[in-house]
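Hi X.,

You mentioned you wanted examples for the new student's onboarding notes, showing what a folding record looks like when two proteins sit in one file. Here is a clean example. The first protein comes first, with its sequence line followed by its structure tokens.
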Amino acid sequence: MISFEPITADTMYIVSEIINSNEAYNVLENGKKERSEEELFKEYMNEKTDSYFIKADDTYVGVIDYMKQNPNDDYPWIGAFIIHSAYHNFSFGTQAYLAFEDKLKEERVSVLRLGVLSQNPRAKLFWERLDFTQYATKPLHHNQVNCLEKSCKKIRGLYPRIFYCTLNGQKKESIVITLLLSEPYAPVEDNVSLLFGAT
């Protein structure tokens, strides 16, 4: 089960482990394999954003940084969404986003924005398969950022499907719950990270 736990000063060492497990992305974004504790503290322990651990049961699998109202455009933004490299390709990214979207719907968020480095096409594909669409490309420091947005009003639901099989001569019934998205999608690698400032 996916849950979210607020990041605190005492748990910043876990943030550092998660972020620095993604060396390739760190190089893409910052030009170096590791980020310092000081850098991460400024990013995840500030008053402008809400920062959470993504947990799968009791395991810390990622981090998410969220700004309720970006002063550049007055929209809510996801600024960082990073899964520990050890947990890529287990669909934790997809599960975490859908759970976080449900949380935002309870808070009556209708539109959500985020930015993806143009040099990170797998991340863009991940978000497009979750119904985000690109509305602009903007410069950010030494990078170009694709700005994406999504209406959080699209309907999702759980639909049971019943399958039958024969085991030791007896007919068995299994119920599989299917999560219906507005469009079919296939899982992609959960190695995605985002930026706030491209508005």
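Then the second protein repeats the pattern, sequence line and then tokens:
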Amino acid sequence: MAVNSSGCLGPFLTTLFTTVLAPVLVSILTTEVKSHNDRPAAPEPGSAPAQATLAERTEVIAQGVGWTPDEAVQDAVRNALRSASAALVDPSTWTRQGTALFDVLLRNSQGLVLRCQEVRSGTAWHQGRQYHHRTLAVEVARRLLADRLRTAAQAVQ
């Protein structure tokens, strides 16, 4: 019979890693990736100003899958917008109306994505057909997103 020799140290180290070390490492890695590979998203007519303050923008890491590289990128951008939207809406409201709110939001998504940077990409096969996957760091105009969500909420009700 094996004896667990970690005692109280195991849970402490697990907590320390997940609450302190992992977030710091992710922050350092994303900063390093951003400094080497910044690639602005294609500018859209009527888009938000590129120099949004830190409080007006948020960065989301999202994954996307598609049959072409472009489909995978578009899926990742949609997933990033969905994630950023869910963070701004009350959880019970998002559970009840999230799909409808997001559908309305996608009808007018111009200017919401400030920057889009590829973090990882690859291809794989499923049932004899190749598909692409992309992980992106997407910078979203937070204030504009909140305004559009308020407008969407009025349209849904």
